[in-house]
Amino acid sequence: MAKILIPTPLRQYAEKNNSVDIAASTVGEALASLTTQFPDLRKNLYNDEGKLRSFVNVYVNDEDIRYLQKDATAIADGDTISIVPSIAGGRC
Amino acid sequence: MLTQEEVSRYSRHLIMPEVGVEGQEKLKAAKVLLIGTGGLGAPVAMYLAAAGVGTIGLVDFDVVDVSNLQRQVIHGTKDIGKKKIDSAEETMRDINPLVKIVKHDVALTSENALAIMGDYDIIADGTDNFPTRFLINDACVILNKPNVYASIFRFEGQATIFAAEGGPCYRCLYPEPPPPGLVPSCAEGGVLGILPGVVGLIQATEVVKLILGAGEPLIGRLMLYDALAMRFRELKLRKNPECVCATGGMKLIDYDHFCGIVKQPEPPPLVNEIGPKEVKAMIDERKDFILIDVREPHEFQIGRIPTSNLIPLGELPKRISDLDPNAHYVLHCKMGGRSAKGCDVLRAAGFKRVLNMTGGITAWSEQVDPTVPKY
């Protein structure tokens, strides 16, 4: 099982869960399983062409999957997948 | 050279070998620009002034509002209505009259950014919106100045240093902003008042380390802080070889356009909207319509319109089958944004008579019933 951490701004689309345990062998499979479980997350994570949105990054442990094998990045038991969207707040 | 007064004031720095007289002189000579004097800017400005950073620039055009005081500790109750840069300057002068404070009473734009930022060594981004964050990043890349970055949302913060020599920039991490409306803003989502204190002081720490050349700067690392879990995590940030900061030719653009913010010359068609006063009249005349509040339950608890029915926007698609598609609906939220989306959801499901109440419960409070608190 790998753990997917859901960031605060996206929890509203994932029934308020802050993390979800998922059995999958690649990042792509894990995210597909996640968005099947929570369909509202899909439009926040993927654009109309089905590509990961460019203001959302996905990390396996501390490494950005763009510098690994992207969706095909293998995940092992105990890995943590982080979804890291851009947030803008600060002055507000 | 440090004066005798400075030696006394900074003695706890001077007796540490990592700072010492040499480090304190570097702090005195440093010029740091803080963009935004809100939640993040407040602690950064206060501590950098206290630490003896010689020149501190402040960029802000906003005035202090009572709702700022829950977190913007540089401003006080007596400052409500004052310009934030004036209120901030007053607090900083009280903390340390020896530092020079330069006030820039403007909104940072593509036209003025390079001129304003050009006078400083280090930029600290404490703004609250994507267009300005991309502008600051791009200007820092062009000027080759480090951007000490932080942002916050509810209980979470992010911090790093962008555009340092050889390091990644904001666009390496996020090539594009989210389309408007997809990610909630702080005004919509809220923020724990203490959070910008913790995250802002990470920023201030990194500013001081950059000036001193001490320790390991937060370059190529994104620090994530979760206040609820009380956990810090660190992710690797890499310079993207395909990013414009690496390939060259960065230039400043129209950032509102880039972020999908469309300036509307005319107000949108009014046929789908209704003002709070007209809604009040409909209630008084006992018109046959259903008023739906699409905010979250905790917002509903703050204040509500008596005849309203709560269906949070996120639950609307699931609850649609309970609603009569032939009935007449008015939707409202806090300011009108979420309810406009709710109207779209209902219309897409074939509902014909759906109106959005403009300005939300905030406008209701201003125009109809001031006993309903604004938040």
Please give a structural write-up.
The complex is a heterodimer of chains A (about 90) and B (about 375). With about 90 residues, chain A is an alpha+beta fold. Chain A has a single domain, classed as Beta-grasp domain (Ubiquitin-like (UB roll)). Chain A is about 25% helix and about 25% strand. Chain A is built from three helices and five strands, in the order E-H-E-H-H-E-E-E. In chain A, strands 2-1-5-3-4 form a five-stranded mixed beta sheet, with helices on one face. In chain A, strand 3 and strand 4 form a beta hairpin. The radius of gyration of chain A is 13 Å and the shape is globular. Chain B starts with a helix and ends in an 8-residue tail after the last helix. By secondary structure, chain B is of the alpha/beta class. Chain B is elongated. Chain B is about 35% helix and about 15% strand. Chain B has an eight-stranded mixed beta sheet with strand order 3-2-1-4-5-6-7-8, with helices on both faces. A five-stranded parallel beta sheet of chain B has the order 9-13-12-10-11. Classes of the chains: A alpha+beta (about 90), B alpha/beta (about 375). At the A-B interface, strand 4 and strand 5 of A face strand 5, helix 9 and strand 8 of B.
